[in-house]
Structures are given as C-alpha cells and as structure tokens.
Amino acid sequence: MPSIKKVLIANRGEISLRIIRTCRERNIRTVAVYSSADETSPHVLAADQSVHIGNAPSAESYLVMERIIDAAKKTGADAIHPGYGFLSENAQFAHLCGEEGIIFIGPEPGSIAMMGDKTRARELMAKAGVPYPPGTESALEDKDIEEVKKIAAEIGYPVLIKAAAGGGGKGMRIVYSEVDFEKSVKSARSEAKSSFGDERVFVEKYLEEPRHIEFQIFADQHGKVVHMFERECSIQRRHQKVIEEAPSEVLTEDLREKMAEAAIAAAKSCGYVGAGTVEFLVDKHLNFYFLEMNTRLQVEHPVTEMITGLDLVGLQIDVAEGKKLPLCQEDIRRNGHAIECRVYAEDPANQFLPSTGYLSRHRIPSGPGVRVDAGIEEGQEVPVYYDPMISKLCVHASGRNKAISKMIRALEEYEISGVRTTIPFCKFTLEHEKFRNGTYDTHFVKDQFMVKKSSDFKHINVAAVVSSLLKMSENHSESHSESSADSSRKSNWWRKRK
Ligand code: MV4
Questions:
Q1: Residue 442 has pLDDT above 90, yes or no
Q2: Is residue 391 within 8 Å of residue 374, measured between CB atoms?
Q3: Cα 251 to ligand 1 centroid, rounded to whole Å
Q4: Who's near 132: CB < 8 A, 6+ residues apart?
Q5: Could you tell me if residue 185 is inside a domain?
Q6: How far is CA 471 from the centre of its chain?
Q7: Is the pLDDT of residue 101 over 90?
Q8: Mean pLDDT value across residues 90-109
Q9: Are residues 41 and 68 in the same domain?
Q10: Selected catalytic residue, list 296, 361, 371, 420
C-alpha cells in the first residue's frame, strides 16, 4: 500500500491551507504552487516548499497541467490534491497524474468523465434506480426538432434546456412555451459550444421552486461507500452558493434515508472512489430528483465536518493510499446544526460587483463552535484574477436557532475594512423570516434581496430591504475610512444590539 509522504496542492487560498493543516497533522510534507499574484499568499508561506508556476491569470498558472505535474516531479511529491475548482474535475489531469505515477487525490478519471457528461449521468441514474427529472434520455442532436418538441410537450412546459457538458447553470435556458423552444435550443447550443466546446444539449422538466439538497458521500478502493448526511444549499446567487447548512430543515428521517441510499447508488454507478457530492432538487411535495454529481471535495465541506466531527481531507488521504474507510455507516453520526456563510469581496449594495483592494483590517470572529477558513490575511490584497472569496465562516451549535444566533453574533464580530463584503447580506438572510422558519427555496436571493424594478416591491418585504440597505451603507462608509477613531468604533461590536 503506498503511503503518501509529500502532497502537492494544485490550488490556492483557503482550501490549500485547509489541506496543509491535515497534512501537517499526519507528518506529510506539502508543496504549494503559486502564480505571480500569490507570491506572498498564506498558502505559499504555510507549505514546506513552493514552486512558481506562471503568471497571475489561472489559464497561465493553476490550470496548466504540465507545469503542475513538473512541479510535483521536481519536488518529489507522490500525490497531488486538486482542491476544488481549477483542475479538480478535469479527467485528463487525473489521467496524467496516473501516467506519471503520481497519486491523484480524487476519483478515477473515468468517474470524473462519466459524471461530467450530464446525459451520461442520467443514463447511469436510470440504471441505478435513482430518480431524476423527466426529460430526454440522450442529447437532442440524435433527434430532429419536431420529435424533441413532442417530448417537451409530453413532459409539459416549462422545460429546461441544459448543456450535456454543463453544470453551474451555464448554457441553461428555461422555456415556458413551444413557440420559444427552437430558438432557445439554438442559443443554448451556441452558449454550450463556446463555454465547453461541446454543443450537445438535453431537455428536462423545469422544477419551479426547488430546494437544493446535496449528500456527501465517501468511497474507498474496496467497494465500500458511505454517506455523511446532507447539506442544504438553496441560498445561492447566480449559481454561486452563499449560505449552506446541515441538516436540512425539510427532510424527514425517512426521506433522508431514501436520499442517502440514492446518493450511494449514484456513487456506485460510476465506480466512485474518494469524497463526492450528489446534488438533488427537492420539490414542495418532497419529491427528490438527481441533479448532478460533483466529483471533488466541495467548498462547503466544513459544514459536514462540523456535524460529523470527521476530517474529510484526512479521509481523502486514507482512501488515496488504498486504505479501507476507517468507519462504517453506523459510526457516522450527526450532531447539532452547522451553518456556513461565504464571505466574498463583493458589494451587496451594488449588485454584488467585485470589490477589490487591500484588507486593511481583517479580524476574524472566534469562540466555541466558530470556525473560519480564510485564504487571505490582513494587509493583503484580494487578487482580481480569482474567485473573490475572502473566507468561509462556519458555526456549530446544538440546534438550528442557536446556530443562527451564533452566526449573527460571529458576523457582527467579524471586522473587515478596505473592501466591501457580503457580510451584511448574510446577516440580512439569517435575520429573514423565510430563512428562520426554513421556508426558503433556490429563488430566495433574487426574490427577497435583489431590488431591481419598482414593480418588484409588491413582492418583497420593503422594510427589511430598506433597513438592510441602510445598514450596508453604514458599513460601506466604515469600510472606506481607516482612521483610528473609526476602527475603535468598529471594534465595539460587543455593544448591545439595538
Ligand atoms: C434545474 C432546475 C430546475 N429544474 N433543473 C442550476 C445549476 C445547474 N447545476 C442546475 N440548476 C438547476 N437545474 C431542473 N430540472 C433549477 C436549477 C437551478 C438551481 C439549482 C440549484 C440551486 C440554485 C439554482 C438556481 C437556479 C436554477
């Protein structure tokens, strides 16, 4: 059995630091790779060794497979952890690692490729008996448009056209009636072609007010697959998750068990190994449908770590070394409630435009049940080249209400100056009646927060939005002032709330 002695981390930011921490606990050496924008970034300073791999744009650094493999060979790393994003779901990269005798800490390239093709994934679910939204079995290219229109009419409008190579919402078109169908297929195809170099699209019934609930699964090389319960990720903005929590408010024990079983069947259908996530949409009648499988460790994995007490990166390393999963399903218990807020350098008062600059102040909250995974430190610049996430703020408490209170406290304690952040938006959401009573769905951000046209006002809680925008502008003026008087006022976060 190969034992991993040195891991190269093909990523940057908080996830690289997260991986380095587990490696250090196991006495595994670490190698960071970095672009010219990351010369002084925390992940580079924290790793045992570092290798410069190119210019700031990721296409010239973190996405260049050969440079990363060369860096692993040069430093004698025996494994590569891809993190999330970048090359983490690139089957060719996983394959290249194998060819070079480097352990790819993730699934086999074949599993990545199968789940990356959404029509292939639907076929696998059909065989595995996992429910998925009604629609065309294969890509539309195999059929003529009249035949496809017939299928769309049978499933019933609205329907959704999706890219076979897609995910994350790119190349998707909602079609409300047959008159728009052909035109939407054409535009979805051309977007799919330009985004993925693959114009194949397929059609699904459009589920109108779904919740996004995903199951964490883990598989070893010996055929054992377990699940680690769900995460509810319905608070999203333009396919970007903002708040995740576990457990989900809507699942009954019975439904949880059925979905977990479906998630395990989905993983087995592609011979999965390692950490993976099976995404489902759940409608208001609590029917669930397979959406896609993410063949990587996800951003929001700390939520699962908090409710299970497990170290998912540690388990990834165990499994990559060929060890049997050191736990059975019965050993995996859930305890309490966890919430994650993603803190982005984006301005919620200005359509979430990226807010770049120096973090002149970055003081993170702490206390029992509070975890902050940050990839950037005070005094550093938020690079414009990558995702503008500053940190993930996670809390754990015995129940949901306590977790919400703890998160609000932690958000208030968090001090950031120099850039505007999504902290006020997270607070707005946590204080929102629909979040508190758990009746939100994937349209929450758009419906409750994005005030664009005045006609939208009749649908929203005007008072809540106005008060949150006022709070945001307060925050805004603070974040741009760096006088000592101002920062002393800011550090008075513990004053009684109004
Ligand atoms: C859907 C859907 C409704 N019905 N599929 C969005 C990203 C991509 N992974 C799939 N997505 C969706 N697929 C059917 N048949 C609604 C979405 C969707 C969504 C899903 C999860 C979380 C947020 C979302 C926001 C908009 C649309």
A1: yes
A2: yes
A3: 19
A4: 122, 125, 126, 204, 289, 290, 291
A5: yes
A6: 28
A7: yes
A8: 98
A9: yes
A10: 296
Domain assignment of residue 324, given as a range: 211-467
Whether 267 is covered by a domain: the verdict is yes
495 in catalytic set: no
User: How many C-alpha atoms does 213 have within 13 Å on its Cβ side?
Assistant: 30
What is the arithmetic mean of pLDDT over 315-331? 98
Q: Which atom of ligand 1 is nearest to the CA of 206?
A: 4
Strands 346-347 and 353-354, by their bridges, are antiparallel
Query: Which of 256, 236, 232 lies closest to 244, judged by CA?
Result: 232
Q: In this structure, are 14 and 59 located in the same domain? A: yes
| Per-residue tokens: 440 | 């939100």
pTM: 0.92
Does 439 map to a domain? yes
pLDDT at 469: 60
Strands 49-54 and 29-35 turn out to be: parallel
Q: Residue 57 sits in a domain of what CATH number? A: 3.40.50.20
Contact present, 133 and 281 (Cβ < 8 Å): yes
Are residues 198 and 227 both part of a single domain? no
- Among protein residues, the one with the nearest Cα to ligand 1's atom 12 is 169
Environment class of 62 (CB within 10 Å of its CB; exposed 0-12, middle 13-18, buried 19+): buried
